[in-house]
Amino acid sequence: MGNEMRVGKIDAGGAVSISQQTLVLPLPPDHPAQLTKYLYHLIGACQNLTLGGLTPDERERENMELQGVFIGLDGDKPIRHPKGEIHAALAQVVTQPRLVILGDPGSGKSTLLRFVAFALARAWLEPTGAWLNLLKWTVQPLEKESPRRPSDKKDEPLIELKWAHPLYIPIMVTLRDFAATDFNPDSKTALWEFIKSQIQAVELTSTIDALLDKLQQGQAILLLDGVDEVPAARRALVWQAIGQLHALFPQCPWVTTCRILSYNDIEAATAKVGAKLTLAPFTPTQIEAFVTHWYDTLAQVGEIPSLLQAKQDARHLISLVKEGKLYELAKNPMLLTIIALVHSFYGTLPDQEAKLYQICINALVVRWQNKKEAKKQGRSALPSSLAELGLSEADLHAILQEIGWVAHQAQPERTDLADISQAEVQRIARKVLKDSVKAAQFIQYTEQRAHLLIAKGGQHDDDLRYTFPHRTFQEYLAGRYLSAQPDFGWLARPLAEAGSDWRKVLLLAAGNLVYNNQPGVGNIPLLLALRDILPQDKPTPQDNAGWQAVWRASEMLAILGMKDALAHPLGQKLLPRAREYLTALVTGEQLTPYERAQAGQTLAHLGDERPGIGLKNGLPDITWCDIAAGTFTMGRDDSDEDEKPAHKVTLPQYQISQYPVTQLQYKAFVDDGGYTNEKHWDAAMSQNYWTKDGFKAWQDDEPRTAPYRYGNPFDLPNHPVVGVTWYEAVAFCVWFSEKSGRFVRLPTEAEWERAARGLDGRLYPWESTLTPSPSPSGRGEQKTRLPLPEGEGRGEGVVGSEGIQANCKESRINSTCAVGLFPSGKSPEVVYDLSGQVWEWCSTLWQEKYTVPRPPNENEWHGTYLNQDKTRVLRGGAYYVSIDNCYGSTRNRYGPDDRLDFGFRLVRFSNK
Q1: Mean pLDDT score of the chain, rounded to an integer?
Q2: Are 497 and 546 in contact (CB under 8 A)?
């Protein structure tokens, strides 16, 4: 009885459906010893991830096994299934007997073939093993179906399918090597003769008959890699040779790969292609899975000391990618691999962005090709295709940098990729190579082999235009060109004033000088440029271009860093001026909220010296604001039920901190051993949340001795501390009271609302009169923390955000920001950030309504009240909450052991 395999059928729309048609094949007989030798050879060639030359130290990681890090790739068109749809590319490899896999450079085409070859070879050698389980995929529910509920088991997919018999013998063919031979495209044996020659070259001649037998029986699958790497003039001939396979091995399926722009339906017609599949970019879920598998594998092979460290490293890299700077790059599997290599080598990425892009470009243009050529001339040797042109590495980079500069200069306002004509590219290459033929060869190499230039446009050469794989490459190369000019600063000043169009170019220019030279070599050229970019005098409030220049110059100076800036007399002059102007920008509400938030991040790196934000004599430097005694209206009758009824409350005079407690101020508590000193943790100890090992809330896997970290920009020193539970906020108050000699605590709910609403019942802290309330519809949902946003350019230049007076959803900042960024949103007592920014803990126990008003002077700061593991009040709204849910009366609640992005501020009495 033979095995059955369902084969695919293409409908008119190009989608693939599973039919009931079956292909009946005999079970494979016991394979001879000769076949075993071949399979072991194939496993050796495919089992490791191909990283040679891509690592920062250019060494091969021979123990990085492909199966540990491989992530299943998706196709652009799903396979229909009675229970849903299948996105996995593997499913079409099974169902399509003549399949072309298309994809962008680095999209995983070759890796997919190597993974299939490896899994099938291992399955043949170990038939009782579970190797075929590597080749599996799931059926996903259709979008119109209801999503899974939280109670559903996440580890049980709807349906899981895997590779079915026949168990093919995989045969890999590199088409670039085949095309280099003198084959006859009309011969039905052309490809087979090449396969035989390759097997003979590795001294496995005895396996040829066994492989031929499998091919003739339809028990082998031909994996034909890289039509796009075949010279354009010979691609039609290669397709013709592939088409001859059907006459020689009519039952043998084949799969081939090709870059999207190199595929031509007319050329491929002779191959009798059955189906085409275009690989989709990595999704956020796939990116996270790859990074997690990457670090788990490093731990398993001993390059990371523990799985716990691997988990932390993976979380760190995922957070960097999700910030947006790298997300678009990370959707490409090969570029994500390079990012992971750099991160695991250096331990970080954000301060070395220019170095990352240098490594990526060098990997694409030089080392990737050297790997393919098995070149061993040395780490600085160029691929033979470039060496034959007489190019040096300096020449190579000079050409690419000018292409990037000219492309960006012509279209700086474009948010997508700029393009550049073929004639202009030829002019730039010819200027260096002094020869038109060599210039054309360089362009062909860069476009077809390195994939750093991508052709687009018309049917004729004169119509062709080129772009880069990603805008960042264009900006990085333009930045390198700019930083190499003797008049860098003079050229950069108008670019700095122009706004966001040149921001990334300028930052990468600075990064190139600092990070891509010998230590210290680029510092003085950068400082000299900054002398020309930073305005001599503080801009006037209306001088938008001047403020843009202040921001750009400060960001570039932050790349150099305070230590290196202060090591030079020019830096000693520039740093205080940049800090002064940047502070004026942040606190004067110049530019858009998003731009000010970015400037506030830069100020954090250059040293935010505003009172009330940092430390004084090692302790938090709190600026206290007096809140006058009096009677105010607490709650509202025209809002949510939990704010009703409005009622009068009388409070004595007190003082409240001008800003929420900042990351730097909370760090003083951490650095002083605050998490390990039991006298600060009575409330937490009463509920068994604190031991001598540290603090452990219900969301924490292990005891910790610092707040939960959300990554950049949340953790910057001038941002409000987040990731703290109510118990941690209480412990900080106890510690600060002891250290300062003055009693401080969390505000009561009434004290917090009095500071936000004043004595006149205002709706927002900045209002002098009560205004009509917007519709409260949907407010319940806004009290739930929203997912962190992904992507870059979050809110930059968003029209309509300029008049916003708080860090809320409408500000488009999408994270915490430097405290005090919205001066127009301060209260009459000059208290900042009472609306938006972060939810702030109060000492008060939650009550659903004010039907039984709490005595206004009730002591909430004693053991009986504090040592209750009950829901506590949070106030103020947050950066992800709409402005109409950031009223002075808005209430929220969480358990005291919850630690989302919650912060707090302080209260004290002047007579204590």
Answers
A1: 82
A2: yes
Model confidence pLDDT, tens digit, residues 734-761: 999 999 999 999 999 999 999 999 999 8
The rounded distance, in Å, linking the Cα atoms of 831 and 21 is 74
Residue written as token pair 């950066």: 879
Enter the pTM of the model.
Answer: 0.70
What would the pLDDT profile of 222-240 be if each residue is shown by its tens digit? 999 988 878 878 899 999 9
Strand duo 220-225 + 169-174: pairing = parallel
Residue located via tokens 């499998």? 214
Q: Name the packing angle between helices 307-322 and 333-346 (round to 10°).
A: 120
Contact, 289 vs 104, CB < 8 A? Answer: no
CA-to-CA dists, residue 848 to 635, 838, 871, 890, 891, angstroms: 12, 22, 11, 13, 10
637: number of Cβ within 10 Å: 11
Counting Cα atoms < 13 Å in the Cβ hemisphere of 450 gives: 26
Those residues whose C-beta lies under 8 Å from the C-beta of residue 381, and which sit 6 or more positions away, are 370, 375, 387
Q: Is 209 exposed, middle or buried (0-12, 13-18, 19+ CB in 10 A)?
A: exposed
Confidence check: pLDDT of 355 > 80: no
Pairing, β 839-845 against β 654-657: unpaired
Per-residue burial over 247-267, b = 16 or more CB atoms within 10 Å of its CB, e = otherwise? ebbeebbbbbbbbebbbeeeb
Q: What pLDDT, on a 0 to 100 scale, did the predictor assign at position 768?
A: 53
Average pLDDT over residues 150-158: 43
CA atoms within 13 A on the CB side of 262: 30
**Which pLDDT does position 11 carry in this prediction?**
30
Return the structure tokens found at 432. Answer: 């260096």
**pLDDT score of 352:** 63
649 strand-pairing partners = 632
Residues linked to residue 455 through DSSP beta bridges, in sequence order: 466
- Res. 681: pLDDT tops 70: yes
Residue type, 605: H
The vertex-286 CA angle with 281 and 288, nearest 5°, equals 130
Nearest to 582 by CA among 542, 621, 555: 555
Q: Structure tokens of 121?
A: 């070879």
CA 453 from centre of chain: 23
358 and 404 Cβ atoms separated by less than 8 Å: no
Q: How wide is the angle at C-alpha 223 spanned by C-alphas 218 and 229, nearest 5°? A: 150
Strands 615-616 and 619-620: antiparallel
Helix H, strand E, coil C: the string for 751-776 is: HHHHHHHCCCCCCCCCCCCCCCCCCC
377-422, pLDDT tens digit by residue?
444 467 777 888 888 878 888 999 999 999 998 887 766 667 888 8
Cα–chain-centroid distance for residue 173? 35
